[in-house]
UniProtKB/TrEMBL annotation:
Stated name of the protein: Carbohydrate ABC transporter substrate-binding protein
Record PANTHER family: ARABINOSE-BINDING PROTEIN-RELATED, OSMOPROTECTIVE COMPOUNDS-BINDING PROTEIN GGTB
Entry's family note: Belongs to the bacterial solute-binding protein 1 family.
Source taxonomy: Bacteria, Bacillati, Actinomycetota, Actinomycetes, Kitasatosporales
Organism: Streptomyces cadmiisoli
Keywords, sorted A to Z: Signal, Transport
Amino acid sequence: MHSRSHTTSRTSTRRAARAAAAALAGALAFSLTACGGDDDSGGNEGGGGNETAETVTLPELDGETLEVAAVWTGPEQANFKKVLAEFEKRTGAKVTFVPAQDPIINFLGSKIAGGAPPDIAMLPQVGAIQQAVDKGWAKPLGAEVQEQLTKNYSQGWQDLGTVDGKQYGVYYKAANKSLIWYNAQVFENAGAEEPKTWDDLLGTAQTVYDSGVTPFSIGGADGWTLTDWFENVYLSQAGPEKYDQLAKHEIKWTDPSVTEALTTLAEIWGKKDYIAGGASGALQTEFPASVTQTFTGGDQPKAGMVYEGDFVQVNIAETDAEVGTDAKVFAFPAVGDTAPVVSGGDAAVILEDSEAAQALATFLASPDAAAIQAKLGGYLSPNKNVDASAYPNEVQRAMAKSLVAAGDDFRFDMSDQAPQAFGGTPGKGEWKALQDFLKNPEDIEGTQEQLEADAAAAYGN
């Protein structure tokens, strides 16, 4: 649970986090419509486009050792290790990746209690950065890191890593969480079209269903995927002001706007034939499997569509499908007047201060590090000086350009702004309440009461 002693800093951080919406939504929708296959034409115009970005200078660190903890697994972990390997090559330091478990704050707490904290942790929630500062774990970033941040990041992304006026986090990885991916062959066979509105999405789902394929794959075993579904519906339907208020628990989860969003979600979640395996199957399906089962099985996969962010591409890469041809994507449809765009991200935070830790944070804030992982796919950087040509296909180049072009006009994942006890813990809080709702989407009132009770306990109000 968050300490309540940093109200001012938390408010300013969330003001930065308030940043998802129309500019990015419009640019993304246009870009995704315009982009075609998996070509390599991207030019050198850059994500924000700085062809002349200098290689970051790093110190000699022969004999130094570092540990970096993150919850990343599979290809995402493997790709990040290649970034760490480049840091080792340039500095002579030895870096060990430490696999962490959700919630990462609890994992770090046990490491710190045992006297063996990692040097750097990749924190996936704004709230987790605040907690790490409140607990005295996080160490401020030095001048070299700040220089890279000032040069390479918009103010909004810098502010997300700031507490009490001090910089603690480097947002190394960003996510656009307002995308729905689909099996192109399924759509072609069904005669389905990319929807622009929620009603269109329901129509598309019915068309796919009528063709003999279950419309949606949902990774309900991972509760965070369900919070992302809710956030997109809520942001578009209730609007950004209400979104900000709910994110700060200034309005209750029993508010009529939440009732409306859950009612809307139930239009899909309440149709068991629309979900691969039904609700019980979805609740046993982890996120990676929700993706791969959409793109395996030719034109008869377990589902025709899967909702989640740009990072879905990491899991598509484990199938025979090609992004841009077999696997295509459209922006999350507008439920209200404007299509939603919800962003997320992972920030590097120093726990054990040293020259080596500061150097690694400096590297992660540079275009050099981000470009390495960008080439590997399934990754977006908020670093505006990463050249767009680094991304492996036109779909990702479009996403990267849209993210950077939006500047500070984005909204950050609501559950990631919440205290981790509510928004980031498996089997508890929002994750559990929405899993229960997926199981029983008729119980809207009971779901709201549970969400409010859990939120009140976590926020302390």
